[in-house]
Amino acid sequence: MNKKNITRRLSAGIFAIICLSVCLCITTFALVYTTVKVENNYFQTGGVGINLNDGKAVIEANEFLFEPGMTVEKDFFVENTSSDAVYYKVYFNNVSGGLAEVLEVKITSGDRVIAQGTIAQLSEKTTLADDDDLSLNEKRELKIYFHFPEGSGNSVQDGFLSFDLCAKAVQSRNNPTKLFD
Questions:
Q1: Given 3-state DSSP classes, what are the helix, strand and coil percentages for the chain, each rounded to the nearest 5?
Q2: Residue 27: is its pLDDT beyond 70?
Q3: Would you say residue 6 lies in a domain?
């Protein structure tokens, strides 16, 4: 190889490196400009909140002395205090006492039953969300029925029950499967 060919190849290589470097700089600038320059886009997060009966107990301690065959009906409400529509569910927490497996509960919204079972069965994990979401600032009147089955037997005499009635909400927008976690 002579000196002239080496010089020509070296010059061509340097020219190619310079061209590729210029192309890389232009491409990088274009990419950065399009990702950094985003005008008039605003993002806002919302909050999820629910008011359960203004924090008042649905049934007071010692309000009733349940006996076999007895049913008690109580009214309460849930209200959407979120920034958008929500799905909600009503469930029992901190359940204790022998009547948890005996006392039957039904929670209704109008003619629809939204939860039904014993208090022990209606926990946060097992209770499903209501089929109808709560619109922004909507207040829904609910009824809860406590029923002491007639055939309960003597094993539950002098039994007691303690529980917290709870409500949980999650946004309904972009959440068609009603995921709460």
A1: 25, 30, 45
A2: yes
A3: yes
How many angstroms separate the first and last alpha carbons of the chain?
Answer: 73
39 pLDDT exceeds 80? no
Averaged pLDDT of the chain: 87
- How many whole angstroms separate alpha carbon 97 and alpha carbon 68? 17
Q: Is 24 within the bounds of a domain? A: yes
| 24 φ, ψ (degrees, to nearest 5) | -65, -40
In the chain, the number of structural domains is 2
20 shares its domain with 101: no
Residues with Cβ < 8 Å from 31, sequence gap 6 or more? none
User: Domain limits at 76?
Assistant: 50-171
Residues 27 and 54 in one domain: no
Q: Which residue has the tokens 């303690």?
A: 162
Q: Same domain, yes or no, for 134 and 64? A: yes
pLDDT tens, position by position, 110-152 = 999 999 999 999 999 999 999 899 999 999 999 999 999 988 7
Find the largest Cα–Cα distance for the chain.
112
Q: Is residue 176 part of a domain?
A: no
